[in-house]
Amino acid sequence: MADSKIRVVLVSHGEQSKGMLNTVQMLLGEQTNIAAYSLYPEQTIDDLTKVLREEIEKYGAENIIFLTELKHGSPFNAVVSLTRDYDVYHVTGTNLAMLMTIVLERDFEGATCEGLCEAAINAAADSYVDVRKMLMDSDDDEEDE
Amino acid sequence: MAEMRNVVLARVDDRLIHGEVVTAWTPTFKANKIIIIDDEVAKDTFNVRVVKALAPAGTKVIVYNVEKAAEKLMVQGVPGERLLLLAKTPTTYNRLIKAGVPLKEVNLGGAGIRGERQPFINNVALNPEEVLACEEMQKAGVNVYYQLVPEQSVVKIDDALKKAKDNFGL
């Protein structure tokens, strides 16, 4: 299979990005054109921003979706700072449903970064559930009948 | 006594709007307006646009340079307004205080090592000018303290100040 055209770049505090990459490959098989970067306590945001800039220089901002795990966190801020120079596709709040959606749908015919970002947000929204509450609400429905 | 709007927290954090500020300090103090005070950021239209667009939920973000901040803060506040001030360095607060803004407390939250900065307390590093700014504020009766997140206890800076002055030969 040819490499996906759209590159996914996961960025996180510590190992989350690498763990996400590991898990998504466990579920969906080995992936190409995907990278994971970590910000560690001994690093500065500038160190991280530098490697992310290199990603963009190498692959082109129009071909990359950045995923960060926390709005206003340092990895998020690093990616946001790059929007000064590039039109960056960036979704924050990384979760597995979101990542799986992007990884699966990026190979669809006509897939675009913009469309994948939207699909990612929809997948994430569907994936956050207070299960106990949902189960209780569904019990209520039955009583109504 | 000079008039001042309702400042609930004045924090030094060179990451400005950042995880700790958004998830911990803003809700704890029920801040509804975040004022970034920084001469450089205020000049940078890209940065101003970004911080305003990405304002944490329930807050409005404003960016002023020091001069403008002094002018805007020393007026009677609007009822219900709760301001969280953010600056990259304690020097900024010292300048505000000298300009007449009657701040009572300054929270040292985060300042990374760069340039002449040396470790001060935990994740706060200060250069000689910043050390002197903290000392001046203390002498002026402002409580300058270290606290990363609200759950942590407040750390007095007196010992760190003494050590930093010795270290820098001040």
Q: Report the helical percentage of chain B.
A: 25-40%
Radius of gyration computed on alpha carbons of chain A: 17 Å
Question: Any idea of the CATH class of chain A?
Answer: Alpha Beta
Shape of chain B: globular
Strand/helix succession of chain A: EHEHEHEHHH
Determine the CATH topology of chain B: Fructose Permease
Query: How many extended strands of chain A?
Result: 4
Query: Taking Cα atoms only, what radius of gyration of chain B do you get, to the nearest Å?
Result: 15 Å
Number of helices of chain A: 6
Task: Label the structural class of chain B.
Answer: alpha/beta
Number of domains of chain B: 1
CATH architecture of chain A: 3-Layer(aba) Sandwich
The 3D shape of chain A can be described as globular
pLDDT under 50 segments of chain A (min length 5)? none
End-to-end span of chain B in angstroms?
Answer: 32 Å
Instruction: Determine the most extensive contact between two protein chains.
Output: A-B, 11 and 12 residues
Number of helices of chain B: 7
- Main β sheet profile of chain B: 7 strands, mixed
Quaternary structure of the protein = heterodimer
InterPro entries (chain A): Bacterial_PTS_sugar_comp (IPR051471), PTS_EIIA_man-typ (IPR004701), PTS_EIIA_man-typ_sf (IPR036662)
Protein name (chain A): PTS mannose transporter subunit IIA
Domain PTS EIIA type-4 (chain A): 5-128
Organism (chain A): Dorea ammoniilytica
